[in-house]
Task: structure prediction
Amino acid sequence: MSDTPKFEVIDRRKIKAEEEQENQQQQPAAKTPEPEPASGGGPRLVVSEPKPKAAAEVEAELPPAPTAQESREQKTAYDASAQRLEDIVRAQNPAAGAQPPISFENLVQQFYVSAMIQMGAGAQEGQRPRIDILGARTTIDLLGVLAEKTRGNLTEAEDKTLQTVLFEVRMAFMELTNMITLQSMQPPPPPQDKN
Result:
């Protein structure tokens, strides 16, 4: 078995072509696209990127929010479905007690575990850890957003948990990125003579 990562290539040319057609219909004075290369249907570099949308445009594209009645009905149906699942699990394992309710600490813990796994923690002994440094950065930034948006609304214990987790994942991220940059700055080994 090879250590090279496996990946999937998704051909988005058809989707991109449809988007370009829609953009051209909406903006008739737009710059004409460059002609396709003579080779035909191979991949090509898309040079023009769509402009970022204003907040009003994004809000206009969002579906309407559910009504309070729809939200209550949906929550009631969700709770009933979750209870049925818990009953099935308890029937299969009678020694298991009821699951405690989900709390803010569970949310913070979920982000913590995700970030650490993305930074290679939890790899089986002898296996090369898989690192998703960009995914880890996103997860850590999400924790930062959570800290910013909940500032002043947390209990002392919740705030301490969040700040401790943020500190730990940021330190792990810095250590990992320092290792990556040091490895990339090392010169390659000198060529060996074949005499």
